[in-house]
Write a structure and sequence with these properties.
Elements lengths: L9 H14 L3 H11 L7 H31 L7 H18 L8 H7 L4 H10 L5 H20 L3 H11 L5 H15 L1 H12 L1 H17 L1 H23 L3 H5 L4
Helix pairs in contact: 1-8, 1-9, 1-12, 2-3, 2-10, 2-11, 3-7, 3-8, 3-9, 3-10, 4-12, 8-9, 10-11
Length: 255
């Protein structure tokens, strides 16, 4: 079990927890696992665990690289603490909040119709991969699917990138940052693990719920993205104010 470093301040832990929970609702951390859980019959939990572990390890590794690079950059970038940088960060955060109100405004019926056109071959592959007959090849293909999903959505994982920025800018040492990042990646897959446990223990009760949840996520993807962008924008703006208290004076909000 991943434990948090004792020196992790509450004002950092709470935003990271919120960002991790938002990340847990992404395509790779929840929608694809949901699709795998909807395989008929008795599935093998290890297959879902392999998928989720691959996603979590990928984001942990990328986070370590990004954090190391960011820490090296920040150590030589004192200008980031200047009022000018704070104003720029605040404007970026506010811009993201405003942008979130315009995401997903246009909906087309064609998108909804396309969501129902799942190829039968893909469903058969899922059924084989999630049951005993899949073999080692199915495990490798699940890992490949997890890596592909993680790579494709990495650039759009704004909460994750914001979390890496918060961890990089914290007072934690290298070990503390690694532990915090590991805990963050673990939280990202917790909702999918809860659904996996429910699918195993009370399949008949939760299967209709899983079907509706998967359909809702596919249908409301744009709205979810809007919430993600808005939350990240708020956190970015708030961090700018916390790091550069004189920001309000520079912007003329207070006399």
């Amino acid at each position: 079990m991943v434990s948090l470093p004792p020196e992790l301040p509450l004002e950092l832990a709470l935003p990271l927890l919120a960002l991790a929970l938002v990340d847990s609702l992404s395509f790779g951390t929840l929608l694809i696992p949901l699709w795998l859980l909807l395989a008929p019959g008795r599935l093998r939990p290890s297959r879902v665990l392999v998928f989720l572990a691959t996603v979590a390890v990928f984001y942990f590794g990328v986070g370590l690289l990004l954090t190391a690079g960011a820490v090296s950059f920040l150590s030589d970038a004192e200008f980031l603490e200047s009022p000018m940088a704070g104003r720029a960060q605040f404007v970026i955060g506010a811009g993201l909040v405003v942008w979130s109100f315009f995401i997903g405004r246009k909906k087309t019926d064609a998108a909804g119709e396309g969501a129902d056109a799942t190829p039968g071959r893909l469903l058969r592959w899922r059924d084989r991969a999630m049951h005993d007959g899949g073999g080692r090849g199915s495990l490798l293909s699940l890992m490949a699917l997890a890596l592909t999903a993680a790579v494709l959505e990495l650039a759009t994982m704004l909460p994750y990138l914001a979390a890496v920025g918060l961890i990089s800018g914290s007072e934690l040492d290298g070990g503390g940052r690694a532990l915090t990042l590991a805990a963050y990646c673990a939280v990202m897959v917790v909702p999918a693990l809860v659904l996996l446990a429910a699918r195993i223990l009370v399949r008949r009760l939760v299967e209709p719920l899983l079907q509706r949840l998967a359909a809702w996520m596919a249908r409301e993807g744009a709205e979810t993205t809007a919430w993600v962008v808005g939350i990240v924008g708020f956190l970015v703006a708030r961090d700018a104010i916390a790091r550069v208290p004189e920001l309000f004076d520079a912007l003329g909000f207070i006399s």
